[in-house]
Amino acid sequence: MHELILTIVKPLVDFPEDVSVHEVEEDHHISYQLSVNKADIGKIIGKKGRVAKAIRTVVYAAAGSKQHKKIYLEIVE
């Protein structure tokens, strides 16, 4: 899942070297924390959150069939 998120996000940003994903696994869910350069936050969120929603949709669809846990994708600064 980590590689999927990086594959989606890196082409969208100006500073791909600053993109990182951290996985936090708990009992009932897994959180992926996406961190990008401050200048790229707007590109990842998009107008009215449309880009972020699209990224989450792809990640949830890919992980939903493989995992029996709830998946969350957080965008952090």
UniProtKB/TrEMBL annotation:
Matching InterPro entries: KH_dom-like_a/b (IPR015946), KH_sf_prok-type (IPR009019), KhpA (IPR020627)
Q: Where in the cell is it found?
A: Cytoplasm
Would the keyword RNA-binding be found if you checked this record's keyword annotation? yes
Keyword Cell wall biogenesis/degradation applies: yes
Q: What keyword terms does UniProt attach to this protein?
A: Cell shape, Cell wall biogenesis/degradation, Chaperone, Cytoplasm, RNA-binding
Query: Superkingdom of this entry's organism?
Result: Bacteria
A GO CC term attached to the entry? cytoplasm
GO terms (molecular function) for this protein are: RNA binding
Where does the UniProt entry say this protein principally localizes? cytoplasm
Which Gene Ontology BP annotations are present?
cell wall organization; peptidoglycan biosynthetic process; regulation of cell shape
Q: What exactly does this protein do?
A: A probable RNA chaperone. Forms a complex with KhpB which binds to cellular RNA and controls its expression. Plays a role in peptidoglycan (PG) homeostasis and cell length regulation.
Complex formation: Forms a complex with KhpB.
**Hey, which family's this protein in?**
Belongs to the KhpA RNA-binding protein family.
Protein known as: RNA-binding protein KhpA
Gene that codes for this? khpA
